[in-house]
Design brief:
By secondary structure, the chain is mainly alpha-helical. The chain folds into 3 domains: 123 residues, no CATH class; 122 residues, no CATH class; 76 residues, no CATH class. 67% of the residues lie in helices and 5% in strands. The strands form 2 sheets. A 3-stranded antiparallel sheet has the order 1-5-2. It has a two-stranded antiparallel ribbon with strand order 3-4. Helix 5 runs parallel beside helix 14.
């Protein structure tokens, strides 16, 4: 292991400790801390490009563009904050360019090493913090229309991925295909601003024509089945139990800017409803005009809901607020785990 790699790995450990402490204690990730470590990453990876190799540095820069895009998309989806997206990008920048002789898409690997432990941890916690009665109640909320919408989405997009692979020779495993499908849905709804149903209506006939001979094989059915079952468990079991276990009621007059709302206000009925915090799921569900926009409460949101409550339109006195998830420790641990994995097994 060369001295440049040792310096960058030391910086990863230092950033992990600092960012985790700040996120857990103060709920913030300081931009100036990220800028310092970004500066170190670019000075070493670009300043010593002749020692590292132009090809490896170019691979790293391309992967950083992907990391930036993924971070922004997950921020737009409501999955994490802008600070978490910037931290994810900084960790990707600190990974030594020499590692790109092993893999060319390290940012996607890091995403898996972050979210798999995160999901396992919170799944354990929601099972621990909820009763059997609550678990059975959430199972009864299964919506067949939503499941059909999701089935249609994965059927169309999985076929598009297969077509892309057949023409380019670039293949994706099942895990990467799932990530890609979710990212496509988020981009369509939040960036391109095209309704998902219109995209599906346009693509479905093309898929049926171009892949008619291949869509009815067992391998394809197995992959769609795995994704669909995973979605049902995630949407109806995990997210509903997470709502119960990690949100608390707050009186409307006590709401504060920056709180992550677990409930929203339907502007047609003025009723308080559970908010699903992921836009790729909201894109599949029946559309309602809701009061709160974005990932957390703004001053304008608070002013509007307090006026509606004072006027008697909103009858409920409380809105459930999510506990803030500290992503920094999971991103930090994920980065350390991926480095250990690369060093020991690849």
């Amino acid at each position: 292991m060369d001295y440049l790699t040792i310096i960058l790995l030391s910086c990863i450990l230092a950033l992990g400790i600092i960012s985790s402490y700040l996120d857990l204690k103060k709920g913030i990730i300081l931009n100036k801390v990220l800028l310092v470590f970004l500066g170190i990453a670019f000075v070493i990876n670009l300043g010593f490009i002749h020692e590292i190799g132009y090809n490896l540095v170019l691979r790293h820069l391309i992967d950083l563009i992907l990391a930036l895009a993924v971070g922004i998309v997950l921020w737009l989806s409501g999955l994490w904050s802008a600070g978490d997206a910037k931290l994810f990008f900084t960790f990707n920048a600190l990974i030594p360019s020499s590692f790109y002789v092993i893999r060319s898409n390290i940012s996607i690997d890091l995403l898996a090493f972050v979210f798999v432990p995160l999901f396992v941890y919170y799944l354990f916690m929601v099972l621990l913090k909820t009763s059997w009665k609550e678990k059975f109640i959430v199972i009864k909320r299964i919506n067949l229309r939503l499941i059909w919408n999701f089935f249609l989405s994965i059927f169309v997009f999985m076929n598009i991925i297969y077509l892309f692979s057949s023409y380019t020779g670039i293949y994706f495993n099942l895990f990467y295909s799932i990530i890609l499908i979710f990212l496509l849905i988020i981009i369509l709804e939040n960036v391109v601003k095209i309704k998902l149903k219109y995209v599906l209506l346009f693509l479905l006939p093309l898929v049926l024509i171009l892949r008619f001979d291949s869509i009815f094989n067992l391998k394809f059915a197995y992959e769609i089945g795995i994704i669909l079952i995973s979605f049902i468990i995630f949407r109806y079991f995990f997210l509903n139990l997470f709502y119960i276990a990690f949100s608390k009621p707050v009186y409307i007059e006590n709401l504060k800017k920056g709180m992550y709302y677990a409930d929203n206000i339907d502007l047609k009925t003025f009723s308080v409803m559970q908010e699903i915090p992921l836009s790729f799921i909201n894109a599949l569900e029946a559309k309602r005009k809701m009061l709160f926009k974005g990932n957390c409460l703004s001053s304008s949101d608070i002013s509007k809901v307090q006026k509606l409550h004072s006027s008697g339109k909103v009858k409920e006195h409380v809105i459930r607020i999510y506990d803030k998830i500290a992503f920094a420790p999971f991103i930090s641990v994920g980065c350390v785990l991926i480095i250990i994995y690369y060093l020991l097994f690849l």
